[in-house]
UniProtKB/TrEMBL annotation, chain A:
The keyword Kinase does not apply. It comes from the Bacteria. Belongs to the ABC transporter superfamily. GO terms for molecular function: ATP binding; ATP hydrolysis activity; branched-chain amino acid transmembrane transporter activity. Keywords: Amino-acid transport, ATP-binding, Nucleotide-binding, Transport. The keyword Nucleotide-binding applies. CDD domains: ABC_TM1139_LivF_branched (cd03224). This is ABC transporter ATP-binding protein. GO terms for biological process: L-amino acid transport. InterPro entries: AAA+_ATPase, ABC_branched_ATPase_LivF/BraG, ABC_transporter-like_ATP-bd, ABC_transporter-like_CS, BCAA_Transport_ATP-bd_LivF, P-loop_NTPase. Residues 7-239 form the ABC transporter domain.
């Protein structure tokens, strides 16, 4: 582990108007780690993801990325520092082709890396290669998620953030996507921070996990530890461990 | 499924004998499915009449202060004229119009109801129109034509607005599962091969057009070249607006403002500083681009409907300023004697030193027409190639990405502020070029030339052509502008429709009708295929079935 963590969130408060979403959240992601954030609907998981990217702005607290304070940096500049996000609902460019989507991901990267990165993404998700000339909106849900991750990877990130990558996908596809994330982490040492509803799969994949309840972190520990805890099982896993 | 079959056949509904039973059940299922937009209108005849009555009532309330009461300035105050007959006619139109719209569009009726409703409508129309004595008795001598005219205009504007609304809402996206696979791809390839040749032929025709016209129609060459110049001006405007609306997805209802800025920039530069056309042209583009940025800044946060309203207001502000700043712009009198362009300093005048004199030709006014044609031809081509080039550059891709999803754009580190402003300013720049060409061609400009209807026509060209499609804009311009001009040539129909028949008065009606028809048959515009700007391995055109321009997500 390096001297400073990849991402450090300290005492983060965030709100939408008067509705408070986060009440002093502390999260740390070390370099080369996979960290997950689990929690129920409306706990503030996506808000935390988005606050890190600058919308909504933090009301209080501090966000450090790679040792640098990014609490008040404009969104597009935060993304240029090496954070890539696959947003909730995937948000691919529906009327552009797969290829063009990937090209958009590489907008800020020197052109010389393009072919290399493209081949990496195609190796990771061979389906995207088959569908490279197809319009993004015509892909299946799983393929769209692959595309969203691929597009994020094209920006050569230091840290990849995924917002609910399993949303609306069949268990088999979820497995495939999680396997790809594990591979990325193992082979390239990519730091991954992701939000999940699917707590069982998330905790199995992640090195460490945080549990977010009503805008506050209530539990933290390694993935295995959290999986064993009775209260976690009761709240997030009962009937969900398939 | 089984349960629905029972409910479908269990009711006492007339079963169409011409359809197989399965189809009938399927139709009923669709009609009953709650989340499908199939039938929003009324069903039974009494329900239809009730709805029509409601529509008539609403019209009665809304139109009360517009139709029956006309105030005019009379010596010593206002004079009120009552026009009850017009009011009555409007209500009759509303009643039958609602019946018609329901029967054909909102809740398709059976053939009998349709025939009855449209028969009544046509019959009434024909009786009132053809049988003048009745119209004269009902509405007073000579009044009927005038009343009919105002109602037609009202209907047409309604149709245009409805068309715009529906087109735009379709364009901004709904879920549509598109066909994929080999068949669609093959079709796309075939179309693209055919399209390539069609485009080449079209280009050559456009290049040779003045000569073709002079050869084929020696008596009407000036008129036809003039129409071609007009069409090309709109092609250029359409391409300029296509950057903003088609590529960047920013709905701009005030594009005519930039056209006006370009025209006035040249006219004023010529008037106050004696600039020639070629010197003023780049400056006009620059001014328009600056105004594009000025409009862009305040509306950065807006999208969709809100953006449309603000741009609409912006277009009006420019026009009203031009109208009222009389000392500077000449106000409603406009600016006249705008100099014509020269060919490397050679003017197209009669006599010594003119174009004809230097090249040893007989003086003919057609030389100037041909010159104008090639100026706008080249300007339009520049617009096209600049757009095509930009589409392949990061900024062009960012425009399209912005159209698709602004949040995703920002999450990829794209500065959406810059992307929007660049789309506004570059689109405005081409509008400015076209504007200064307009000024020099007309020789006279006034704020009257830059009303909202111009914006609407340009937007209609872009949308009808297929948002984002370059060649679609060309076809739409030919149809819309050329079609309207063609109407001037069907005066022979006055034999049928009576002495006072003037086909150009119906141009707005036809304009509206064309929009509605295209909206129904080709909701994605005439040309809906999109050429991807980047490919892996080989370049393929993606057919409309796969790319579904205008629908998707």
């Amino acid at each position: 582990m390096s001297a400073h963590p990849m991402l450090k969130v300290e005492g983060l408060h965030a709100a939408y108007g008067k509705i408070v979403a986060l009440r002093g959240v502390d999260v740390e992601v070390a370099k080369g780690e996979i960290v997950t954030l689990i929690g129920a609907n409306g706990a503030g998981k996506s808000t935390l993801m988005m606050s890190i990217c600058g919308t909504p702005r933090a009301k209080a607290g501090q966000i450090l990325f790679d040792g640098e304070d990014i609490t008040t940096t404009p969104t597009h500049l935060i993304m240029r520092k090496g954070i890539a996000q696959s947003p909730e609902g995937r948000r691919i460019f529906a009327r552009m082709t797969v290829m063009e989507n990937l090209q958009m991901g590489a907008s800020l990267v020197d052109e010389q890396y393009f072919d290399e990165d493209l081949n990496k993404v195609f190796d990771l998700f061979p389906r995207l290669k088959e569908r490279s000339a197809q319009r993004g909106g015509t892909l299946s849900g799983g393929e769209q998620q692959m595309l969203a991750i691929g597009r994020a990877l094209m920006s050569r990130p230091k840290m990849l953030m995924l917002d609910e990558p399993s949303l609306g996908l069949a268990p088999l596809i979820v497995k495939q996507i999680f396997e790809a994330v594990r591979e990325l982490n193992r082979n390239e040492g990519l730091t991954v921070f992701f939000v999940e509803q699917n707590a069982f799969h998330a905790l199995k994949l992640a090195h460490r996990g945080y549990v977010l309840v009503n805008g506050e972190i209530t539990m933290t520990g390694t993935g295995a530890e959290l999986l064993k805890r009775e209260d976690v099982r009761a709240a997030y896993l009962e009937g969900g461990a398939h | 499924m089984a349960g629905e079959t029972e409910s479908g056949t269990g009711q006492d509904q007339p079963v169409a004998t011409t359809h197989p039973e399965g189809a009938q059940i399927k139709t009923e299922e669709r009609a009953e499915a709650p989340n499908l937009v199939v039938s929003t209108g009324p069903r039974g005849l009494s329900e239809r009449v009730k709805q029509a009555a409601i529509a008539t009532f609403i019209t009665a309330v809304l139109a009360f202060f517009f139709f029956p009461i006309r105030t005019s300035i009379a010596p010593g105050g206002l004079d009120i004229t009552w026009r009850w007959s017009l009011y009555a006619l409007a209500l009759i139109f509303a009643f039958f119009g609602k019946l018609l719209v329901d029967a054909y569009l909102l809740s398709p009726a059976g053939p009998r109801v349709r025939a009855m409703v449209s028969g009544l409508f046509i019959l009434g129309f024909v009786i009132l129109y053809a049988w003048h004595p009745l119209g004269d008795i009902l509405f007073g001598t000579g009044q009927f034509e005038e009343l009919l005219g105002s109602i037609l205009i009202g209907t047409v504007f309604g149709a245009i607005l409805l068309g715009l609304v529906v087109l735009i809402s379709r364009a901004t996206g709904k879920i549509g599962t598109a066909a994929t696979g080999v068949a669609a791809q093959k079709k796309a390839d075939r179309i693209s091969t055919f399209g390539k040749w069609a485009l080449r032929v079209l280009f050559v025709v456009a290049l040779m057009l003045p000569w073709i016209v002079m050869f084929l129609f020696p008596n009407r060459d000036r008129q036809l070249i003039d129409i071609s110049i007009l069409i090309l001006t709109y092609v250029m405007l359409g391409w300029g607006l296509n950057i903003v609306v088609g590529l960047a997805g920013l709905l701009d209802l005030g594009y005519v403002a930039f056209y006006a800025v370009g025209a006035y920039a040249y006219a004023l530069l010529a008037q106050y500083f004696g600039f020639g056309f070629w010197m003023a042209l780049p400056l006009a583009g620059l001014f328009a681009a600056m105004w594009g940025i000025m409009l862009g800044f305040p509306v950065l946060r807006l999208r969709g409907d809100y953006l449309a309203i603000v741009t609409l207001a912006f277009g009006e502000i420019i026009r009203v300023v031009l109208l009222n700043w009389s000392e500077f712009t000449g106000g409603p009198d406009g600016i006249g004697r705008i100099p014509k362009p020269t060919l490397f300093g050679i003017e197209f005048n009669r006599g010594e030193g003119g174009f004809a004199d230097i090249f040893g030709l007989d003086y003919d006014t057609i030389h100037r027409f041909i010159f104008f044609y090639y100026i706008i031809f080249v300007l339009a081509l520049i617009t096209h190639f600049a757009t095509m080039r930009l589409r392949r550059l990061p900024v062009g891709r960012a425009w399209e990405a912005l159209r698709e999803d602004e949040i995703a754009c920002r999450s990829l580190g794209i500065n959406t502020t810059l992307v929007k402003l660049s789309a506004f300013s570059i689109g405005a720049m081409f509008g400015g070029f076209a504007g200064s060409f307009f000024a020099t061609r007309q020789g006279f400009i006034s704020p009257e030339s830059f009303t909202f209807i111009e914006s609407a026509i340009i937007l209609a060209i872009v949308v009808l052509g297929g948002l984002g499609s370059q060649i679609g804009v060309v076809f739409a311009s030919i149809v819309m502008i050329g079609g309207i001009e063609l109407l001037r040539n069907i005066g022979f129909l006055s034999v049928v429709f009576g002495e006072n028949f003037d086909p150009t008065q119906f141009r707005m009606l036809i304009f509206g009708l064309a929009m509605v028809l295209i909206m129904v048959w080709k909701p994605r515009g005439l040309i809906s295929a999109r050429q991807p700007s980047a490919v892996y391995k080989e370049r393929k055109s993606i057919g409309a079935d796969v790319v579904a321009q205008g629908e998707g997500h």
